[in-house]
Design a protein that fits this description.
Blueprint lengths: L2 H30 L2 H21 L9 E5 L1 H6 L8 H13 L4 E5 L20 H13 L3 E6 L1 E2 L4 E2 L4 H8 L8 E3 L27 H9 L20 E2 H9 L3 H8 L3 E6 L6 E3 L13 E3 H13 L5 E3 L4 H10 L8 H24 L2 E3 L2 H33 L5 H8 L3 H5 L2 E12 L2 H5 L4 H21 L3 E6 L2 E6 L8 H25 L7 E16 L4 E6 L1 H11 L1 H4 L3 E4 H7 L6 E8 L2 E9 L2
Parallel strand pairs: 1-7, 1-8, 2-3, 2-8, 3-6, 11-12, 16-18
Antiparallel strand pairs: 4-5, 9-10, 13-15, 13-16, 14-15, 16-17, 18-20, 19-20
Helix pairs in contact: 1-13, 2-12, 4-5, 4-8, 5-6, 7-10, 11-13, 12-13, 17-18
Protein name: Adenylate/guanylate cyclase domain-containing protein
InterPro entries: A/G_cyclase, Adenylyl/Guanylyl_Cyclase_3/4, CHASE2, Nucleotide_cyclase
Keywords: Membrane, Transmembrane, Transmembrane helix
Length: about 600
């Protein structure tokens, strides 16, 4: 290989690696923006928020006071809530006269003047004038911000009644006295984001909470997540209670409650303006994440007047891209178990890092990193699995015909290590040999002899394999096989005898074929003996084979050698005959002398 070729190969490998990394990270970033990716982020955010509120509570120095229009207040008045101008006007006057610094009203003020209700004999029914008077009194003592409501049908914010708007506009300060009460939910329906310009339906108006904070003296271009870590659960004072305290002359308690504070007035009824949050926020609903909307505005004000919003680190930030690059290294490496262990540690580390940043009011979106880690690991494992499959196929192709299916199966299942350790095992050994083969083939060309042997052995081996046997070796025109290893057989003697008889049937087919070609019929002898043998891989690192050795092998070979004299093609020992059980085709042949060992009882079978 030339230097130029080597350089091109290196560049090609580098380009492939870069492509794989880009593909994995790009896929993860795209998926992180879908519902699946965001759901991963939301779930982790909610769990970290719960842990933070439970184990790392954050106290606040400036906490809004909530005045709620609840069921108790609604039950205490005679008129409908939409006509409660007088009570609202009186409440605003009480709160402002008690020293409230800023009042935020999360209730839509009336759009109509209800002039038809005015009666000269009952001037107290001039609801418009009474509320207007209350607003005028309030803005002289406190900063007042009221909510605007988005009209979905008209596609714009509903305008306040002109007189109310004029009064609100008389206030001095760098804030808008009429602001949007609109909030944006995430894909799972929960409110987490601060309602900035991007959240507003018209992309122009600012939020009620932001203008309340501005009226307090804190103005900023707020973005990020509402900091739900701050403060404990919230309670409220019923509007009915405030009116009663004023009627009873409890001015000291009212001033203690409101003096210098931010006050939010809104509905706290169980069925009005209910929103879903990532954590329980209402003290009177300790197990519910569904709370009145005024509490969301109050938590946003908490965030702005204390530690600020929680800043979100987006998936496209350099920090996330860097973590994705680190996660993409799981594309490399071949040890799957180690890789999975490291992936688990990496996930734990990422969760810890994200939580530590969470405690610093920074939210790290981890879905892209987790998806990169998952894609990289799955791609690597899948690629290795494919390579393993391809290697197995190559191995199977290379060894097919060289070893028995049972040995091949053990090799494919990576059980070669166990096969290398020899062990004793009960097997039934089969020896077969072609009778008078040398005389029969001495005048044939060698190529013709080999061709006939291959055709013969293919039939014999098929019968052995059919019964679960393992072909050990070919010895000229003979073969050795054993039953019971490496695959365990319940009745190896029966399987061996079936294989021997099957070999005789296959031999008849073979003889018919070669007779048509002008060759003489072949005869074979088969010997079967059972017992313990030492099973394992024998040889050197350069050349070895899976085999069986022991007296049982020698005895089977001796039984095959006497088959010609006994005039039976199959000779089995008494051990095999006993294991097979009653078999009318097995003929007892008394004890027979075997070369190199004592006589044993044998049985013959013609088919």
């Amino acid at each position: 290989m030339t230097i130029a070729t080597a350089a091109r190969n290196r560049w090609a490998r580098a380009a492939l690696i870069a492509f794989q990394i880009s593909l994995v990270i790009g896929s993860a970033l795209l998926l992180s923006e879908t519902r699946l990716g965001q759901q991963i982020d939301y779930s982790l955010y909610d769990r970290q928020l719960a842990l933070s509120r439970q184990y790392f509570p954050q106290a606040v120095s400036i906490d809004p006071v909530i005045v709620g229009l609840d069921e108790a207040f609604v039950d205490s008045i005679d008129e409908p809530l939409s006509l409660s101008h007088t009570h609202l006007a009186q409440a605003l006057e009480i709160i402002s006269s008690s020293g409230a610094r800023v009042i935020g009203v999360d209730i839509a003020l009336p759009e109509k003047r209800f002039e038809t209700l005015v009666n000269k004999s009952a001037p107290e029914l001039d609801l418009h004038r009474r509320l207007l008077q209350g607003l005028l009194t309030t803005v002289t003592q406190s900063k007042l911000v009221v909510a605007k409501v988005w009209d979905k049908d008209a596609h714009h914010f509903r305008e306040l009644q002109l007189d109310y708007a004029a009064v609100l506009q008389t206030q001095e300060g760098n804030f808008d006295p009429m602001a949007s009460a609109h909030l944006c939910a995430d894909l799972d329906g929960k409110i987490r984001r601060f309602p900035d310009h991007e959240c507003q339906p018209d992309r122009i108006n600012t939020s009620l909470a932001a203008e309340v904070a501005a009226a307090y003296g804190v103005r900023q271009n707020w973005q990020g997540l509402i900091n739900f870590r701050l403060g404990s659960t919230m309670s409220y004072r019923s509007l009915k209670t405030i009116l009663q305290m004023h009627a009873q002359g409890d001015q000291i308690d009212l001033r203690h409650l409101f003096d210098g504070k931010v006050v939010l007035v809104g509905s706290t009824q169980d069925y009005v303006d209910i929103l879903h949050l990532p954590a329980p926020l209402a003290r009177w609903l300790p197990d519910s994440e569904r709370v009145p909307g005024v509490l969301v505005h109050a938590q946003a004000v908490r965030s702005m007047l204390n530690q600020g919003m929680m800043q979100s680190i987006a998936n496209t930030s350099w920090q996330v891209i860097l973590l994705c690059l680190i996660a993409s290294t799981f594309l490399f490496g071949r040890r799957i178990a180690l890789k999975l262990s490291l992936a688990f540690i990496a996930i734990l580390g990422l969760a810890c890092l994200s939580f530590l940043m969470f405690l610093q009011n920074r939210w790290l979106s981890v879905s892209a990193v987790l998806l990169t880690l998952m894609f990289a690991s799955l791609w690597s494992i899948s690629w290795q699995a494919w390579q393993h499959f391809v290697d197995k196929q190559k191995l199977a192709k290379a060894f097919t015909g060289r070893v028995s299916p049972q040995v091949m199966s053990a090799i494919m299942e990576n059980d070669v290590g166990a096969m290398q350790h020899s062990h004793r095992e009960k097997v039934c050994v089969l020896f077969s040999d072609v009778r008078n083969f040398t005389t029969m083939c001495e005048h044939m060309p060698a190529e013709q002899v080999v061709n006939l042997l291959n055709r013969y052995f293919s039939l014999m081996v098929a019968e052995i394999h059919k019964q679960g046997g393992t072909v050990d070796k070919f010895i000229g025109d003979g073969l050795m096989a054993f039953f019971g290893a490496p695959n365990t057989l319940l009745h190896p003697e029966q399987q061996a005898l079936k294989a021997a008889r099957g070999m005789l049937v296959a031999l008849e087919d073979f003889n018919r074929e070669i007779s048509a070609q002008g060759f003489g019929a072949w005869k074979i002898g088969i010997g079967l003996h059972a017992g313990e043998a030492v099973i394992g891989i024998l040889g050197s690192e350069e050349r070895h084979e899976y085999t069986a050795i022991g007296d049982v092998v020698n005895t089977a070979a001796r039984l095959e050698s006497i088959s010609k004299n006994l005039q039976y093609p199959i000779i089995v020992s008494d051990i095999v005959a006993s294991a097979v059980g009653p078999d009318p085709k097995l003929v007892p042949l008394n004890e027979q002398e075997l070369k190199g060992r004592s006589a044993i009882a044998v049985f013959g079978s013609a088919d």
